[in-house]
Amino acid sequence: MKRTIFTLSCLFLISGPAAAMDQKQQPELTEVWEPEPAIVTPGERGAPPSDAIVLFDGHDLSAWRANAGEPGWVVEDGIVTVKPGSGNIETRQPFGDVQLHIEWRTPGVVESEGQGRGNSGVFLMGLYEVQVLDSFQNRTYSNGQAASIYKQHIPLVNASRGPGEWQAYDIVFKAPLFSSEGFLQRPAFLTVFHNGVLVQNHVELGGPTVYAGQPQYQPHSPKLPLMLQEHSNPTSFRNIWIREL
User: Fold this and answer.
1) pTM, to two decimals
2) What is the C-alpha separation between 235 and 197, in angstroms, rounded?
3) Going by fewer Cβ within 10 Å, which terminus of the chain is more open, N or C?
4) How many CA atoms are closer than 13 Å to the CA of 27, on its beta-carbon side?
């Protein structure tokens, strides 16, 4: 009995002052007021927010260039469409960590299958590809279908709409970091929403996109242009905007 009373007394002595100190803590002590987040006005129905850089608003390709000069893609009715054989296009401005919104449409008339249906690609930094493809009732290899990180990550689900319907990617890209000696300090990461559905959840990239073999990092600039791929299919794009993070 004496031991029990002694034990309870010790517990009270240990917990009593601590509990009293917790009661003295004010909630204001854990409030952080600085820095204050900047105000950004959201866009309506996919329109760019106030701090976005508009890369294509339906008028021209002034934000883009091609390897041989001006882009040869066709701008008409607020849409830019790949002109087969004209080559890839890339932004004049380089980017690193970004949030990207891009809407795309594969041809309404189906003339092929597999990788031949509306094939294109969104290349972050010109190196890391999110595949664009008509994957509606069109089987191909899983790590090459729409919303795959090409040859690296299969999408969690197939959220594709039908041929000729507009689709959207919302992408968050974390660029890789290299040391001054050229060693990889942090790999690239990608998060992708396809038509509002999460299909890539902060996946780690093994290196730039390659068609054959395994990806492998090579040191590069912290900022590089965004590239859209010409893959011989007349795929269309609209409402392209980007936010630097």
Assistant:
1) 0.89
2) 21
3) N
4) 0
